[in-house]
């Protein structure tokens, strides 16, 4: 049910930490194609919740929050909006992942990042009406690719200049990932 307010909690001792491939293959494909799919990940209206409000409404594991939303869902909330940063990473031949950042008001960038997982039959055609979202704060979780995860406003590079969080996302990606901005044929 879309917009469910029920809290999703894992039993003690369990940690939800799937790979990108597992998120697309085992959860997003199942949601899109099976009439009765595993429903551990809830559905939320993205426009009804600011990122700091989704704890207890999404499947939360550590500082990551997982939920499904519709592809065409409005990405604006009462306090801000999710903005794509222009990075699209293919996930084998299964799907793709887009990166977004939450902006307050007229464009004040926050530390909230969303990885949005899609299935597609071609780079421009959506295969499913659903996307799977993983939301986290960049200071607590930068990326699964192993980038250093604890950043603050005081962090600077070797030249003494500030490094933006967007630069840190780019630095955490492999060179091959930057060459591929859409799914391979």
From TrEMBL:
<keyword id="KW-0539">Nucleus</keyword>
<dbReference type="GO" id="GO:0048731">
    <property type="term" value="P:system development"/>
</dbReference>
<keyword id="KW-0804">Transcription</keyword>
<dbReference type="GO" id="GO:0003677">
    <property type="term" value="F:DNA binding"/>
</dbReference>
<keyword id="KW-0805">Transcription regulation</keyword>
<feature type="domain" description="NAC">
    <location>
        <begin position="10"/>
        <end position="138"/>
    </location>
</feature>
<dbReference type="GO" id="GO:0006355">
    <property type="term" value="P:regulation of DNA-templated transcription"/>
</dbReference>
<keyword id="KW-0238">DNA-binding</keyword>
<dbReference type="InterPro" id="IPR003441">
    <property type="entry name" value="NAC-dom"/>
</dbReference>
<protein>
    <submittedName>
        <fullName>NAC transcription factor-like protein</fullName>
    </submittedName>
</protein>
<dbReference type="Pfam" id="PF02365">
    <property type="entry name" value="NAM"/>
</dbReference>
<dbReference type="InterPro" id="IPR036093">
    <property type="entry name" value="NAC_dom_sf"/>
</dbReference>
């Amino acid at each position: 049910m879309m917009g469910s307010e029920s809290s999703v909690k894992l039993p003690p001792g369990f940690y939800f930490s799937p790979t990108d491939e597992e998120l697309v293959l085992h959860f997003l494909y199942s949601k899109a194609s099976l009439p009765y799919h595993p429903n551990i990940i809830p559905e939320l209206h993205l426009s009804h919740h600011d990122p700091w409000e989704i704890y207890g409404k999404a499947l939360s594991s550590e500082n990551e929050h997982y939920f499904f939303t519709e592809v065409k869902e409005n990405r604006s909330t009462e306090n801000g909006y999710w903005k794509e940063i222009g990075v699209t990473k293919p996930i084998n031949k299964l799907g793709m992942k887009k990166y977004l950042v939450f902006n307050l008001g007229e464009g004040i960038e926050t530390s909230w990042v969303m990885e949005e997982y899609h299935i597609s039959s071609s780079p421009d055609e959506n295969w499913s009406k659903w996307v799977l979202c993983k939301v986290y704060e960049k200071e607590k979780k930068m990326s699964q690719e192993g980038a250093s995860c604890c950043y603050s406003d005081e962090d600077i590079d070797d030249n003494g200049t500030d490094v933006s969080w967007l630069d840190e996302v780019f630095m955490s990606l492999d060179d091959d990932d930057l060459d591929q901005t859409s799914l391979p044929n």
